[in-house]
Amino acid sequence: MNTPEPSPSLARAIRREARRLGFSAAGFSAPPPGGRATERFRAMLREERHGEMAYLETGLEARERPELLLPELKTVVSLAMSYHQDPPGWNRRISRYALTADYHAVLRRKAEELLEAIGELAGSRPNACITVDSAPVLEKEWGERSALGRTGKNTLLIVPSAGSYVFLAELLLDMEIPEERPPLPNPCGSCRICLDACPTGALLEPGKLDARRCISYLTGELKREFTTEEASMIGGRLFGCDACQERCPHNQRPLIKADPAFEPREELLGLEPERILGMGRSEFRRLFAGTPILRIGLRRLRRNARAVLANEGKPID
Ligand code: SF4
Ligand code: SF4
């Protein structure tokens, strides 16, 4: 596309616009993504640490060659939006990110608004591909390359001033947006709080996760019934798990807090497994409308609730 000569001030103007839209941070990088990230991804598949998430086995080529998603790809804009909140009365049975509106729709809408703004700032709208978990991209790698954040030992991207309770999105553009930023320092040093806090040993070593032991995967991704071991691993959690983020120093009093779009739903804060086993489909749809939990359906949520009750030695009616 024909655009005026890009300059670093364009990156600054786009970042300002991203903040105005509610993004906690934005970064710019150019392809290729680098072989180290794809090799780590291949190792995860080889060792079957992705469990039964077969969708991760597809799109390997696009992960290595993102230009397959957008011909003439010149810039990846990495975006992060905080959902960090500590609502009073929250019993921690549902993960933070699932107490609120489904982030896919929120981030996509804001990314579309940002794309419009980029078009105005640059003089013409670039061709673009917006991804919010919707295309095979190595988003943490892009986030690191653009100095948006650095991956911690808990395998999550840690964004300065915002921490790790962030949703990520990317804008792939056929337009150059030059910006030189030095890589961020290692956020962990000798800390290993997250490894020690994981209740199931899913963090095999710093930066290496076995999804098959991860409560987030078991309660939110696994489609079949639990084995006895899997059921016991979820402990008291109905959906998701924040244990490897709760005490991370980067998540204590971050300067940037949740976007107002992620206001927690009052009714979900104290939800107990007994209520889930007692509810019908229409109540399930009403209670979880617009949240990530709707996606797993009542059958799987009941499976999780039965396991929680068994783990706590309570009767299952
Ligand atoms: S989400 Fe929970 S189970 Fe998964 S790695 Fe983190 S602490 Fe462990
Ligand atoms: S808890 Fe410590 S080791 Fe884990 S991600 Fe945070 S800073 Fe890094």
Describe, in plain words, how this protein is organized in 3D.
- The structure is a single chain.
- It contains twelve helices and eight strands.
- Helix 1 runs antiparallel to helix 4.
- With 317 residues, it is α+β, with helices and mostly antiparallel strands.
- It is globular.
- The protein has helices at residues 8-20, 35-46, 60-64, 103-122, 139-145, 193-197, 215-220, 228-233, 243-246, 273-278, 281-288, 297-311, and strands at 25-29, 75-82, 128-131, 150-151, 157-158, 166-173, 203-205, 208-209.
- It has a four-stranded antiparallel sheet, with helices on both faces. Strands 4-5 form a two-stranded antiparallel sheet. Strands 7-8 form a two-stranded antiparallel sheet.
- Strand 4 and strand 5 (157-158) form a beta hairpin.
- The chain is 34% helix and 11% strand.
- The chain folds into two domains: 8-173, no CATH class; 193-254 and 263-311, no CATH class.
- It starts with 7 loop residues before the first helix and ends in a 6-residue tail after the last helix.
- Residues 198, 200, 202-203, 209, 214-216, 241, 243-244 line the site of one iron/sulfur cluster (SF4).
- One iron/sulfur cluster is lined by residues 198, 200, 202-203, 209, 214-216, 241, 243-244.
